[in-house]
Amino acid sequence: MQKKSRFTLLTMLLLSCLFTASPFMGSAWASDKEAIVATVRSLTLQDVAIIEKHAQSGDVKAQTVLGMTYALGKATSQNYTEAAKWYRKAAEQGFTVAQYELGVAYDNGKGLKKNPTEAAKWYRKAAEQGFVEAQTNLGYAYEQGQGVKRDYAESIKWYQKAAEKGSLDAQFNLGLIYVTGKGVPPDMVSAYMWFSLVASDGDPQAMRNVAQLKQRMTPEQVAQARNKLTEWQQKNPKPVAPPLRPEESEPMISL
Predict the structure, then answer these.
(1) Distance between CA atoms of 101 and 108, rounded to whole angstroms?
(2) Which of the residues 41, 70, 148, 185 has the least number of beta carbons within 10 Å of its own beta carbon?
């Protein structure tokens, strides 16, 4: 008797997306990396064979999932070189998640020779499409002069973009910039605001920084910083996820 293939719910959802012809460019997938990772962790060896078939046909989503499968070593042997190969195929077609992951591969030297210039190049491509992690990493590259000429104004610009989308790393780094006065006059009020945003998420280092800054600030400066914080939070409210229905309780990839 012929055995029928049996796939998990996540795999079925993924494959249904792969069979659907649709553009995967731009920032539409910029927030879906966690969903991709969750799907990769659920795959079987049989699933990977099917995904590879779609990757070979040029599907950027399948190529990215396959790259991450090799990077994480799920349902197949870990192979950073293969991961980078598939990330590149999708990245060259403009897929933001793959562009970011290819930048990370160049940054860390996993599967590719370490190359800060190439890392910054691919971070920029994803950052320009709105990928938050890429914006943060590009800001760091400009701050440190890694792969690009050091430029604090550019660093602040990219940190700001990521910070406005909720990146705690970008918010923390902006706090450091305003404390140290990198490319801007030292500004304890702005530093207090950025560290307070991160501290409100429970970060212990940010909490310590807020406490230390408060000791160096006048009551008027603290009040000004808190007013600035309130204004920023009102302008940039944290997104609230709607409650999940029972059938949506598992992470999934959606278009």
Answers:
(1) 10
(2) 185
